[in-house]
Specification:
The chain is mainly α. The protein has 9 helices and no strands. Helices cover 80% and strands 0% of the residues. The longest helix is centred in the last third of the chain and has 27 residues, at 180-206.
Amino acid sequence: MYTKRHILLYIAGLFIMAFGIVLIKKAGVGVSPVSAIPSVLADLLPLSFGNTTILFQLVCFILIFAVQRKTDVKSLLILPTAIAFGYIIDFYMYLLPSGEPALWLAYVICLAGICATALGISMIVKADLMLPSPDALIRAISLRFTHPLSRVKMEGDGIYVSIALVLELIFFHHPESVWIGTLLSVLLTGRLVGVFSGWMSENQTES
């Protein structure tokens, strides 16, 4: 049974995760793996980062049903969530200033974005509602083929980044969005999700 607390936690998680994704992009030293393809598409197409995020999530949404071979209410609700998430991305892209910070500051901003992204993911998972469609696709693949979620997540992130990198090399001849910040995000996000999830579980037990 989902309560008002679950819904509020989920909405807050979406906003915090989107804030973290935009912080990482604004730092200019890479993007998170799940945002790699939308970031490249935003550079190639006359669309905003939020709009390309929606497009990417729509593709993942379609693939979820191809993998699951069934529909349910929870899966269908991923679609409006994907659209809302894209608009939240654009809201933060407009709100947060752009520029070229000093290299040390860029990495500080990137690390802050990774922390915010991990916290948002932890809150979304804790709320136990709909995952963002790229992560929901990874979970669907894990369940369908009975592979460990951690392994599928690592492989999925690798595929997202590889596709983005190939697109960049074809059209720009050098990396644009995939850079050191992307590697940091791959290495740190999962660990931080574990830390935040454990912290939230401990607080719930104490209360």
